[in-house]
């Protein structure tokens, strides 16, 4: 079957019409919140907006949150295929960087890998005695089945319950199906405020510490978007607006000043899945709690 040039032109215009209707505006599809407790979602959406504001020379852009709710594993799979979403955030590991294109700028200054423990208030005396991973192994933690952190905790000999969905985790702690829920300092205080449960407490006198940068990811072939986001984030780091954003965001404001963690007991864990390309020697990308 052959087509005349005029017919081919018509078919091509029909296929491109949705994109042409947007003019030169770049549409960035992102996933929705995983429930009301997913307060960090607002932080990352705002960070994308900041990166876009820093790159006006690349044209107008707009974030569109899709209506499809999906767990992290599916979101990253759809992203790798160029389906449903164009940009997502996640803690990195070797497998994810093979599947996706990482933008290697820690979105929280590396604080995802500094984990306070959300515990039941009645457990404070017991957790006050914990100094080592062996001490903590007497108790049961809660962590996502699809999260890279889970492998790190289990490698350290910790007992972990692994629900598949984030919205299941705090109820598990409340219902005594676990003793502690490690959360990054960048996310725990806003989540706890939203939870508003007087029986729980953020126990930040004890921190689990390991290298676990949270990155934005795109599909491997989405060079245009990845380049723009990286450029915008680097500009925001350079001019101080990213740190200022962290200090003012309702999600992360309460973790400052960082000096308050100097007296916290810290259990350092190894992360064998940390990609060798991780920019651990670029001090401008990491916040220092010491």
Automatic annotation (TrEMBL):
Keywords: Signal. SUPFAM superfamilies: Periplasmic binding protein-like II. The keyword Signal applies. It comes from the Bacteria. Residues 1-23 form the signal peptide. This is Transporter substrate-binding domain-containing protein. It comes from Chitinibacter bivalviorum. The lineage of its organism: Bacteria, Pseudomonadati, Pseudomonadota, Betaproteobacteria, Neisseriales.
